[in-house]
């Protein structure tokens, strides 16, 4: 994990990763702590992970972005390296109002990494550029 999250959140994600590496599942206490730290984003994020909605998109140069198929059917691009999601909830709830650490999409990215539940897709540099530019066109 990158150091963009509070230490308690980083530690919890490490514990979840360790639990899934050792037993292939988490504990009730870990999920309770997840809900306590991340609030209302926790359960929807877990649903996205269960639905295998998170895809790690990598180019030959090593550039990486994540795409999350949201519950509405819209595809959002997330960047774990800078703790950012293109969804409206991230802009409003996280950036403007500071009501939450993360939106459900970026939390799903972190959880899918920890749980080993991330889909993998390798694309060309041009394809990755198109994915990133498509997000900008949607916003513009």
UniProtKB/TrEMBL annotation:
Q: What is the lineage of its organism?
A: Eukaryota, Metazoa, Chordata, Craniata, Vertebrata
SWIM-type domain ranges (all copies): 76-114
Which protein, by its recorded name, is this?
A: ZSWM7 protein
What PROSITE patterns does the database record attribute to this sequence?
A: ZF_SWIM
GO CC, alphabetical: Shu complex
Q: Keywords in alphabetical order, please.
A: Metal-binding, Zinc, Zinc-finger
Q: Which gene encodes it?
A: Zswim7
- Could you tell me which InterPro entries the record lists for this protein? Znf_SWIM (IPR007527)
Q: Which Pfam families does UniProt cross-reference here? A: SWIM
Q: Which PANTHER family match?
A: ZINC FINGER SWIM DOMAIN-CONTAINING PROTEIN 7 (PTHR28498:SF1)
Q: Which GO terms describe its biological process?
A: double-strand break repair via homologous recombination
Q: Name one GO molecular function term.
A: zinc ion binding
